[in-house]
Design goal:
The complex is a heterodimer of chains A (about 160) and B (about 300).
Chain A: H1 11-26, H2 31-35, H3 40-51, H4 58-72, H5 78-99, H6 102-126, H7 137-161
Helix pairs in contact in A: 1-3, 3-5, 3-7, 4-5, 5-6, 6-7
Chain B: H1 6-26, H2 31-61, H3 65-103, E1 112-121, E2 129-132, E3 145-147, E4 152-159, E5 164-168, E6 175-180, E7 186-191, E8 198-204, E9 214-217, E10 229-237, E11 244-251, E12 260-265, H4 284-288, H5 295-298
Classes of the chains: A mainly alpha (about 160), B alpha+beta (about 300).
Chain lengths: ~160, ~300
């Protein structure tokens, strides 16, 4: 990457990656795989916050979360809240995150995704739309942590290929 | 860009989100926002359904001649049986209308029907919801009943411009009024949150409900049209000491296998004997307006 003073570019590419994430979010899977569906939207959002912390932040988190709310039909604001918070924490920790070894990075992602999901779960619980106990969110959180590194590789390639900055 | 403190931004976002959640729960003020965003989410839903569509297309292309002949024969037989049933139905309907006229009550058996395709399933295991490919633009409205060929599936809970969400009867937050077809015993049928399992709530131990009983919608609550099959009782457990018996039922509709559903708009959901209604025109109107848009079926 070049100097930070360059004009930001590639918003379209970021949006495309988010749309692909949205697709993965709703693509029909069997019941078993449904449990371990990673939080694609949040992961892609976290990646962009990590690599472009001065451009992508809380506001993006909020908007993407709002989109997710309509996409999966939850209470409007549930995921917006969770994603805004996730983006905020990633923005606060991006410098350390960048130098972390692989396992530690995944651990941070686990915590971020887990807390965002827990928050969303609490809101969903308060409107009476949960059925399974809260620990069940751990499956998809763990899947998210596992998929983080390969996803980073793919998005990194996209970022360099299409000159997103 | 980054001059504003991110913490302030977060605070604003949090307050905004909490306000949104409260408004969405308590009022309908945020529905326009949801509607507008629906234009952006529906294409993704349609796209996610594309592989399934493509697979079906390939299946259709590679279907053998013998298979097609077989299915055609089967369908012809089915049509014959259905036609025979319809013949009887016309007589029964006329008789029913006459009897209802005698009782001064209105008959609302039929309603307008719209065919829709299921394009998505809720990814959240906590909720049993479907997404269909018809929305407000096709005049789908909230509260419409959704059926398949075998029975009731659920109701429309949210309408976007190009798609709508259907709450299944098996969702843990869903309950409806049903009656046993055999003897008219009424009960509340609630979802369990698990696919293809339903429970009858608060049924006294002495109620006459047996295994295999068909449960049909009563039309009470004015949400579902009356008289559609909903579920079949699979087990009745009388527990000594408990005041209610434990009754489990299974939906008659194939909730996990359907690809097309019918949306029914009941004209006047009131179907209990109604003394004010003039018996003369009862039943005649709604029955004529039953137009089935089964373009998919004739293709």
């Amino acid at each position: 990457m070049r100097l930070n003073s360059e004009r930001p570019a590639g918003t379209g590419v970021i949006l495309v990656t988010l749309v692909v994430a949205a697709l993965l979010e709703v693509v029909p899977l069997s019941d078993t795989f449904n449990w371990v569906r990673p939080e694609w939207m949040l992961l892609v959002l976290l990646y962009w916050v990590l690599s472009l912390p001065h451009r992508i932040g809380v506001l993006w988190g909020f908007m993407v979360g709002l989109y997710q709310d309509v996409l999966v039909g939850t209470t409007l604001g549930q995921w917006a809240l969770a994603y805004a918070l996730g983006a905020y924490f990633m923005q606060a920790a991006y410098k350390r995150m960048r130098v972390f070894p692989l396992l530690q990075q995944s651990a941070v992602v686990f915590l971020l995704v887990g807390s965002a999901q827990l928050l969303a779960f609490l809101i969903q619980e308060s409107v009476g739309r949960t059925f399974y106990p809260p620990y069940t969110i751990l499956y998809s959180t763990a899947a998210s942590a596992v998929i983080w590194r390969p996803l980073c590789g793919v998005l990194r390639w996209v970022q360099l290929r299409f000159l997103v900055r | 860009m980054s001059s504003a403190n991110p913490t302030y931004r977060l605070l604003i976002a949090l307050v905004l989100a909490v306000v949104l959640i409260a408004l969405d729960q308590r009022s309908r003020w945020v529905d326009p926002l949801r509607y507008v965003l629906g234009y952006l989410t529906a294409p993704v839903q349609y796209l996610a359904h594309l592989p399934v569509d493509a697979a079906n297309g390939v299946m259709r292309l590679t279907e053998t001649r013998t298979r097609l002949m077989e299915s055609r024969e089967r369908l012809e037989r089915q049509v014959l049986i259905l036609e025979q049933k319809v013949q009887r139905l016309a007589v029964l309907q006329a008789e029913n209308t006459r009897l209802r006229e005698l009782l001064n009550s209105s008959a609302n058996l039929d309603a307008s029907v719209l065919v829709a395709e299921i394009i998505g399933v809720d990814p959240d295991p906590n909720r049993q919801e479907l997404v269909i490919n018809k929305g407000l633009r096709d005049e789908v409205s909230q509260g419409q009943a959704v059926l398949d060929s075998e029975g009731l599936i659920g109701q429309v809970v949210e309408t976007g411009p190009l798609s709508a969400r259907v709450l299944l009867i098996t969702d843990a937050s869903h309950a409806m009024s049903v009656q046993v077809n055999r003897n008219g015993v009424r009960a509340i049928l609630a979802g369990t949150g698990q696919g293809s399992r339903l429970r009858l709530l608060y049924v006294p131990d002495t109620a006459d409900i047996r295994e295999g009983d068909l449960l049909v919608s009563t039309g009470l609550g004015k949400l579902y049209p009356r008289g559609y099959p909903v579920a079949r009782v699979v087990s009745v457990n009388h527990q000594s000491g408990a005041s209610f018996s434990d009754i489990e039922a299974r939906p008659t509709a194939h909730l996990d296998r359907v690809s097309h559903v019918l949306l029914v708009q009941s004209m006047e959901p009131v179907s209990a004997p109604d003394m004010e209604t003039d018996g003369g025109d009862a039943g005649a109107g709604p029955a004529d307006e039953a137009d089935t848009e089964d373009a998919d079926a004739t293709e």
